[in-house]
Amino acid sequence: MTTPTRVTVSGATPYDVVIGRDLLTELPAMLGASAQRVMVMFPWALQELGHAVQASLVEQGYEAYAYELPDAEVQKTAQVAADCWQILGKLGFTRSDAIVGVGGGATTDLAGFVAATWLRGVKWVAIPTTLAGMVDAAVGGKTGINTEEGKNLVGAFWPPQGVLCDLTALATLDRRDIAAGLAEVVKTGFISDAAILDLVTEHAPALRDWDGASASGELWSVLAELVHRSVLVKATVVGEDLTEQGLREILNYGHTFGHAVERQELYQWRHGEAVAVGMVYEAELAYLAGKLSKEIVAQHRSLLDALGLPTTYRADCWEPLLAAMRRDKKARGNLLRFVILEDVAKPIRLEGPEPTLLEAAYAAVSR
Ligand code: GLY
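Above: inputs. Below: predicted complex with glycine.
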């Protein structure tokens, strides 16, 4: 539990995702010998941690600065990125200097985007502080901001020099955030690693009632293993297909319907909550298309239910959901494309399913 584990993400510049506790001594190896100045970016709610990272960097010989961002998705804007560029310019950040993003997915997306764009690209390290950030957002080099045109439409593939998943950060997360992160964990289980599903099934009651202050040593070990296994799946996929030419699309399981739900809910749902109901929809679609057994569809429902995640959605908004799915990045012209399963760990693509099938899957998840 205290010994960190490591997953290497291969690619043009391979990097490690380290999972454990008290990992800041890993930073110099990730930042490299040439970085002199380091900008640590974090949201207001994580000031204490952000300043601790800055202090640790100063102790380790860097000229380290702290930059506070607005909280949550509000920070992922062109204006906030411009503010970051301005401060980097004032401080004279050069191409050999670096950025560290400390926070949830919105923070690491923004920090990575600023790193990708400053001087056409400087080094950066992600320190995700949410479960969803550790198993998804911070790994794989997708960086970006939201604009009026939509979420994550402006960005760059810019892998970090390393990712530090300090499990201590999970101690203060509330149940809803842990469950939302577990939705992405379950997704990696369904697309690639049945052992994840077994582990989550066995410990679902304790995970659902997550309380970081009183969690048992066993539960912490389970979480560490779930993070490790999920990162391994993601690392394998993005190591092979960084820029989403094909394989990486499987990470979007549950996301076509899920993104439509998020939009319909005006982004008031957690991403993972929308992905949970999205996986049930896409499992029902796979069943209706004759690809997936009823038992695996039922497994989706029972597992996600056991974690307290939504498995149904309101019945009165098919048209806007369909319109939103048509805008999905996987769509080709008028053809909707889904990632579906033939079995656990057997993802395939479903292109242009009949409208009747799409609507019948909606009926199956409607309440
Ligand atoms: N979150 C999906 C991906 O990184 O491709």
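Residues 136, 140, 142, 248, 251 surround glycine (CB under 6 Å).
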